Amino acid sequence: MGATEIEPEAESVSAHSGENEAAEEAAFQRVLRKIDLRLVPILVLLHAVCIVDRSNISVARISGLDDALQLDQGNRVSIVTLVFFVTFIVFDIPSNMAVRRVGPARWMGLIVFAWGIVSLGMGFVHSWTGMAALRVLLGAFEAGLIPGCLYLISAWYPRYEVQKRLALFYLCALTLAACTNILSYGLIQIAAHPTTGGWRWIYIVQGAITAAIGAVIPFVLVDFPDSPRNTFLTAEETALVRRRLEADRGVTENAEAITLARLVEAAVDPKTYLFAFMYMTGAMGTYSFNLFLPVILRNSFDFSEALSFGLLVPPAVMAIFLAMIPAVLADRWHIRGPFVSAQALLAIVGLCMMAFLSSPVSRYVGVFLGEAGVYGLVTGVMAWQANNIHGDARRAIYSAIQIMFGGIGGLFATLVFRQQDAPKYVPGIVAVVACCGTTFALSIVLMLGLRWANRRADRGKSIINGLPGFRYTI
C-alpha cells in the first residue's frame, strides 16, 4: 500500500518537473529572439560593409579604374588584390586576442572606422602602387571583423542553435553587399565622365558610410555574455542564458586566457587543418565570385555595364534560400557533415556549368548553383567547427585560424584567376572545382573520424575535450 500511495506523488513531481523544463525552454527561446534582434542585424551590417570595401575593386575596374591606374597591365591586378590578404592573414589571431581584452563593441567600432577611412582614401589615389599600399592597410584592419563576429555568435548561442545564425550572418551580408552594386552604379553617375572617373565616387561615398557606421558601433553592439555592458537583457534573462550555455557546453567558459599552450594545442590538432581547408575552399569560391564575377559578366558574357551590375544580385538572393534550408535542417537534426558534402557537390556542378557550357544563359544558371554551394559550404563548416570546440579561449583561437585559412583562400583566388585568362577565367574556376572536390572527400574522412572518436568515448576508452559527456557533432 505504501508504494501505491507514493506513485501518484512521484508522477506529480515528474509532471511538475516537465512543466518547469518546458517553461524554461519557452523562456529561453524568447530570450534568443531578443538576442537575435539585437546582435545578428548589426553583425550582418558590419559583414556587408566589410565585403563591399574589400571587393568593390571589382566594380571599380569596370567603371574606369583599370584605365586610370593602368591596373590591367602585366600582373598589377593580381598584386593589388593579393596584398590585401597578406595582412588579413597575419592579423587574424592578434585581433581575436584583442577582442576579448578590449571588448567586441569597442574593438569592432575601432577597426570598422579605421578601414572606412582607408577605403575613402582610395578614391583619391593616382597610381596602382598607392592603391596597393592602401589595400595592405585595409587587410590589416578588416582582419579582425569576421573572426570576431564568429567568436561573438558562438559565445551567445548553444551548439545546435548556432548554424542558423551563422547562415543569416554570412548569407544576408553577401546579399546586401551584392545589392550595393546597384548603388555603385548610381554613384559612378556622379562623375563628369562616369566611364572613366566614376570609380572614385564608389570609394569616397562607401568609405564615408563605413566610417560613420564604425563611429556608432561602440554604442550599439553587444559584448560577450559575461559583460556588464549588456543592459538589453534583464538580470533574470542573463542568468538564464548563462545557465543554458553552461548546460550545453559542460562548464562555464567565460574569460579564459589565450595562452601559448592553447595555441600549440590548436596547431598540432589535425582537425584544425581539416576544418580550415574546408572553410578555405568555400572562402576561395566566395572571393572568386566577389572579385571576378563582375568582370566575367561584363566581358565574357558580353552583358552591358548596367546589366552586369544588376545581374550580380539575383544569384546572391537565391543563395540565401538554397543555403538556409540546409542550415535549418542541420540545427534540427544535430548533424553537419552530410550537408557540407552536399554543398561541395552543388558548388562543383555550378562551377562546371560556368566554365564549360557555351550558352550565356546556361552559364548564368551555373552562377546561381555555384554561389549557393560555396556560400553554404562556408556557413556549414563554420558551425561544424564551432560545435566541436569547447572552451572560450579555444573558440577564439580556432575561429581565428579558420578565418586565416579563408584569407589564404582569397590569396589563392587572386593567383589562379590570372589576367591572361580573362574574360572566362577557366583555369581559375577549375582550381576552385578541384578544391571543392577535395573538400567533399575530406568531409567524408572527418565524419568517419569523429564517429570513431564518439564510439571510443561511448565505450569509456577516451574522454573528448576533457568532458565525460561531450560528443563530437558529425
Automatic annotation (TrEMBL):
The keyword Nucleotide-binding does not apply. Residues 39-455 form the Major facilitator superfamily (MFS) profile domain. Belongs to the major facilitator superfamily. Keywords: Membrane, Transmembrane, Transmembrane helix, Transport. This is Major facilitator superfamily (MFS) profile domain-containing protein. It comes from Penicilliopsis zonata CBS 506.65. GO terms for molecular function: transmembrane transporter activity. The keyword Aminoacyl-tRNA synthetase does not apply. It comes from the Eukaryota. The chain crosses the membrane at residues 77-95, 107-126, 132-154, 166-188, 200-222, 272-297, 309-330, 337-358, 364-384, 396-417, 429-453. One of its GO terms (cellular component) is membrane. Signal peptide: none annotated. It is found in: Membrane. It is a multi-pass membrane protein.
